[in-house]
Amino acid sequence: MPTSKREKGKIKGGYFWKILWIDLDRDEVRPLEFDEAFALKYIGGRGFGAKLLWDHLQKRTVDPLGPDNLLVISPGSLAGLYLPASGKTSFVSISPETGIYGDSSMGGSFGVELRQAGLDALAISGKARSLSYLWIDNGEVKIIPNDKLKGKGSLESEGMIKEELKDEHIKVATIGVGGESRVRFACVNSDWGRNAGRTGIGAVMGSKNLKAIAVRGSKDLPVFDLPRLKRTSETSFQSLRENKNFTFWQEQGLMSVIDYVNEAGVMPTFNFKEGVFEHAKKVNGYEMLLKYKIGDTSCFACPMACGNVCLVKEGKYRGTVVEGPEYETACMFGPNVGVQNFAAILKANQLCDELGIDTITAGNLIGVLMESQEAGILSEKDLDGLNFEWGSEEVILETIQRIAHRKGIGNILAEGSLGVIKQWPQLRPIISQVKGLEQSAYDARIAISMALGYATSDIGAHHARAWTIAKELEMGMNWPLEKKADLVIYHQTLRPLFDMLGVCRLPWIELGFDENQYAEFYSAVTGVETSLNELLHRSMDLYDLTRAINMKYGISRKDDYPPERVFTLPMTEGPHAGKILKREDYEAILDIYYQKRGWTKDGLVDEKKIEMFNDPLITT
Predict the structure, then answer these.
(1) What is the Cα–Cα distance from 254 to 245, expressed in whole angstroms?
(2) Residue 545 has pLDDT above 70, yes or no
């Protein structure tokens, strides 16, 4: 679309009007221009990614680890600007872990640099002839072969590339051994510890022989009304600093969640069998502050600075340093596997970051093996002769290595839940997963909205799609099902909007930041006056779009159920001992949910709505 036409349009800022299509098969790069209709409808970030993927899938479905799979990397239209927590980037593809739509959001500054390089998104197809990395210098792209990176860790590779390019300030997104080995839950790492952690995006990069993407940018970001943006942002920063929990949040970050969920009785313990861990105080945020924390880190433009830098100063893990853990990692490598040594959790976190695998999935599946040994489901031979007792730190660390290198039992675990079930069908009842994605660290037996959020998530059982458990616990068990369904849909609508805009959800969910401000930010940046409701309509459409993608892979009502044990296995301890989720209640709320979304009773999007996503909005 000619630039002159854009200048006459509604949008006056927020976009560079440039997506790069990188064909690794042909060693070729070409620009994709897009028009205002595309920008207004899909906004950016996850929206751009899902639409590009949808268009790519029109001719055929793709093998997630095949060269035909498409990887889209897109920061949102507000990413990199002067407003709170504007450092988010979406990685979108068909997931090797689940075989359906997948995306993962990365914080830090990688996406900011991509925007400063003058780009709105990357679309990467094909497979490089040898292990390579992309070098993007202010929009100019080179595909650089580098066999020296083979077998190197994520963080080590970041340092090597910065040294090779002689610029320590560039931003680099890398994969570790896990990605090279096509571990189906491999992640992408940047800024020494920020991860696109879920759905196996690192395996997609590994399947493309793409070790890393390095970016340098120095361009100004386009903003229509800079004084208005500055006024709104300064007011927003001030409101966050004045929040009563602001200082506490900076001190502990997400580690503060340990005490909350343990007291609430919903912290996964011993492979989701229980919701309370008697040794929680040994692995909580206060233990971290007292013995291990040496500093804070922050994503771009975020005053919350929720990243914790921790160092093990003594004992067998002495010298271990890592950005982390966050709550999910601490829980899955702590209570879920029976570990009560915070230093061991840090070591597991550090290993997963360097090897490039998802901590949630790794901790989940190791917990499954521990329960399988305890229950006599798997034999010593099945388990490589390892003793998977609860709390076995050395076995946990060894298993992480075996997963990344696909050695022995690690080769089975590297296939994710679906691969484990294929190998050992008898484990299906004790694996907490939805659509092949392992459940993250909030129990759903007593919170039907959380069960619904996990079950209807477009990527599988991930809390970041709809973290409704706190509200449901606050409102009580007798809160009407319709209200709970409304809550899930609101989360599943607002949270994608954050990813479309390129901002973090934590100011809103943790410090109560007013979500209406994002409409003000968008209006100031683009010159298009809008409201939160108008933006939420775009996000609601996005959820229909990702459902339509999943329908191509056979997803329907049969796939929208929480893990089996929420219906069958009551906890024996804590405030919710003896309680389970009733199937009839879940069927009822699922019906309500589908009705409110306008889907059929089998969970399918109307064909007329799907046709709306076939608009030819991108021109080469």
Answers:
(1) 12
(2) yes
Hey, what are 408's tokens?
């022995």
Q: Distance (Å, rounded) from C-alpha 456 to C-alpha 465?
A: 9
The gap from C-alpha 408 to its chain's centroid, in whole angstroms, comes to 28
Alpha-carbon distance of 268 to 368, in angstroms, equals: 12
SS3 for 90?
strand
pLDDT at 476: 80
Task: Write out the two tokens for 189.
Answer: 């790492």
CA distance 334 to 606: 44
Q: Is the pLDDT of residue 477 over 80?
A: no
Contact 204, 96 (CB under 8 A): yes
Q: What's the rounded Cα separation, in Å, for the pair 42 and 49? A: 9
Question: Over the stretch 241-269, which tens digit does the pLDDT of each residue have?
Answer: 999 999 999 999 999 999 999 999 999 99
β-pairing verdict for 19-23 and 121-125? parallel
| Spatial distance between the Cα atoms of 362 and 383, rounded to a whole number of angstroms | 15
Per residue in 383-436, pLDDT tens?
999 999 999 999 999 999 999 999 999 999 999 999 999 999 999 999 999 999
CB atoms within 10 A of CB 613: 21
- Cβ neighbours around 127 below 10 Å, total: 18
Per residue, what are the HEC states of 400-459? HHHHHHCCCHHHHHCCHHHHHHHHCHHHHHHCCEECCEECCCCCCCCCHHHHHHHHHCCC
Residue 535, pLDDT score: 98
Contact indicator for 436, 99 with CB cutoff of 8 Å: yes
Which two tokens mark 284?
Answer: 């909580």
168: number of Cβ within 10 Å: 8
Q: What is the dihedral of CA 551, 554, 555, 556, to 10 degrees?
A: 90
* 551-564 tens-digit pLDDT: 999 999 999 999 99
The pTM of the full predicted model, rounded to 2 decimals, is 0.97
223 C-beta neighbours (distance < 10 Å), count: 20
Give, rounded to a whole angstrom, the gap between the first and last alpha carbons of the chain: 9
Q: What sign does the dihedral 395-399-402-404 (CA atoms) show?
A: negative
Q: Average pLDDT, whole number, for the chain?
A: 96
pLDDT band for 33, please (50, 70, 90 cuts).
Answer: confident
Contact between 557 and 107 (Cβ < 8 Å) = no
Give the integer Cα–Cα distance in Å for 531 and 539: 13
